[in-house]
C-alpha cells in the first residue's frame, strides 16, 4: 500500500531521514517512493503506522494514500470517481492543510466542504468534525494535493512536557527532547537493542532511548552530569546504565547504535582539550565498541568538519545535516556506519 507521511517543517532534511532510519532500524520492509515539501510517500504494510506513531520526533501523522491529484482542475472530478465505500457506516471528517504557499488559488476550506459533500453523497456516512471514526486528510504541497486516510498521529505535546527546563536537573548544554529523539532514531536502532550516548550530559538522549524501549547506556566525564542524568531519568520513572568515564577510553562492550552530542568547546567542559582532539580520539575508540555495519549519529560545530575526521578513521559517511543554531553556531549532524565490507 502507498502511505503518505506528513513531516514537520522544522528542518529540511532530518524528518525524511528519520522515517528511513526508524524503518530500517526496525527492519521493516518498505521503500521510499517520493518526497515533497513536508510530505513523503512510501510503500509498505500497516505495521508501519504503530512504529512511526511510537517513535517519530519530526513525524506528524500519516496513513493510506487514497489519491494524489497533481492538476487542480481534476480535483473534484477525480474525487467523485474514488471508491469511498471503506467509509460506509463510519463517521468521518475532512481536514485540508496547505504547506507554505502552494496552490494559493485553491481555498482549503472550500476543498474540505466539497470533498465532504462528495463523500457523503457516495456513502451516506455521517460527518463528525469533533471526533470522527476516520479523518480524511488533504495536504496541499509542491506536488499537488495528497488525500489520505489518517491512520496515525504522533503525540507532539509530550516533547514540550520533557523539555530540558522541566526536568529535575538542568544544564544549558542539553538539546530539546524532540531533537534528542531524532538523534537516537538516526542511528537506526531497533527496540531491545543496546544504545550508547558516551557524552550523555543531563541524559536527554537516554530518556528518549528508554522511552523507545532500547537498552540505554550513558557515560560522561563529569560526575555532576552522571548524577544529574540519574535524577532526570528517575523523574520520568526510567533507569539507564550510567558510567563515569572518558569517552576516549570507554569501559563498555559492543553496542548496536550510538547517538551523541560531544562538547562544543563553548559552554560545555572539554577539560582543557581541543574539540577536534577529543572527537578524533573518541572516533578511534568507538570503532571497537560499535558493532560492525551499525550506525552512529554525532554532531559538532560545522567548522570542526567532523565528516572528514570520521572518513579518516574508516567510517562511511551516509548523511550530513546542517543546522543553524544561532549567529555564531552552525551544527553538522552526521550519520556514519562502522563499515566493513
Ligand atoms: C553538549 S553536552 C551533552 C548534552 C546532552 N546531550 C544532554 O542532553 O544533556 C557534552 C557533554 O560531554 C561531556 N564531556 C566533555 N568531555 C568529555 C570526555 N572526554 N568524555 C566524556 N564526556 C565528556 C561534558 O561533561 C558534557 O556533559
From TrEMBL:
Residues 46-151 form the THUMP domain. One of its GO terms (cellular component) is cytoplasm. The keyword Cell inner membrane does not apply. Its EC number is 2.1.1.213. It comes from the Archaea. PANTHER family: THUMP DOMAIN-CONTAINING, TRNA (GUANINE(6)-N2)-METHYLTRANSFERASE THUMP3. Catalyzes the adenosylmethionine-dependent methylation of the exocyclic amino group (N(2)) of guanosine at position 10 of various tRNAs. Acts via a two-step process that leads to the formation of either N(2)-monomethyl (m(2)G) or N(2)-dimethylguanosine (m(2)(2)G). Belongs to the methyltransferase superfamily. Trm-G10 family. This is tRNA (guanine(10)-N(2))-dimethyltransferase.
